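Supplementary Text 2. Reproducibility record for the structural model of the 183-residue chain.

All settings were left at their defaults, and a single model was retained for analysis rather than an ensemble. We include the record here because the model underlies the residue-level annotations in Supplementary Table 4.
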Amino acid sequence: MKTPMKSIIAASVLGVSLIAGFSYASAGTEKDELKSDKVTFFASPTSAISSSVAVPQSYNRVLFSGTVAPLLNKDGKTTYERYGNTEEQAIGILEKLKADLKTKGLSLADVTYLRVYVAPDPNKGDTPDYQGWFDAYALFFNTKDNPVKTARSTVGVESLVSPDYLIEIEAEVAYKNNSKSNK
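Retained model, structure tokens:
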């Protein structure tokens, strides 16, 4: 069965027009969202993280240095006994971050960006345990209690400052500046 060439061309033009129109509409929406006076996270609904975050000038920032896992057992004989596996270390770090934020009157919902370094795990064939990190992240972000999807970089590194550390996390936080001089 032959399809007339005009029908094929018309269908192609219509399809391209719809795609271009949708792309233009999406871009317009994101441009509008950049004008917001709130922190705006740009993310796919299916992604656990944001591809970008816009922080308006009226917000202050707090930058957290690389944080490593808390000691779980000083008498432990192995990395896992002293500090835990990658997931346990990440949970410990995020709990420390959560507590530190709370002392500042902030929460994990104020975190906009995480930079994560994952070192090789000798118990995992000397490869970084990314899944352990992803599982820990999923307990704190993109949840019912904290729907924030931070922007994030996860980098595999050769080592950290101690061979016991399997993960190190830096955080960037944004919070509303409510001072009268900034209104």
